[in-house]
Design a protein that fits this description.
Length: about 140
């Protein structure tokens, strides 16, 4: 479950003394419904925006948009998120994690938590528990 990944990320960060964790978010069928190019109507899944807002407000969490959308659509999405008070730090990259003696991030960039329907995230089931966990974890 996604909560296990979140708890593992927080635990690892605390143990290692890391100041940040890196969270990837696919867009279609994860944050918003897919319309497969038919029309412009896309809907946010319940609790997605509320959860993203909590995460966006945290200095210890880096949000990365992980999408195969075309650049012009990404600009539209980023503007929409910005207007909602949700700020993704990066798009399809994590320049903060650099190569080291034990890891090469030239092709696969570093992240701690992945929200993607292709990776088992179920937006209709998983957003609310994540939201509730963060409310409890952060005391909001």
């Amino acid at each position: 479950m996604i909560i296990d990944a979140i708890e593992a990320a927080f635990t690892r960060a605390k143990k290692q003394g890391w100041e940040k964790t890196y969270w990837l978010f696919d867009l279609h069928d994860t944050v918003i419904t897919s319309n497969y190019g038919v029309g412009e109507v896309e809907e946010y899944f319940p609790f997605a925006l509320e959860t993203l807002k909590i995460l966006s407000d945290r200095e210890d969490i880096v949000l990365i948009l992980f999408t195969s959308s075309h650049d012009e659509k990404i600009k539209v999405y980023m503007e929409k998120f910005k207007n909602l008070g949700i700020n993704f730090n990066y798009i399809n990259e994590n320049p903060e994690a650099t190569n080291s003696s034990y890891a090469n991030f030239d092709v696969k960039f570093y992240f701690n938590v992945l929200f993607d329907d292709k990776a088992g995230f179920h937006p209709m089931k998983d957003w609310e528990p994540v939201y509730q966990y963060l409310i409890e974890y952060y005391g909001k």
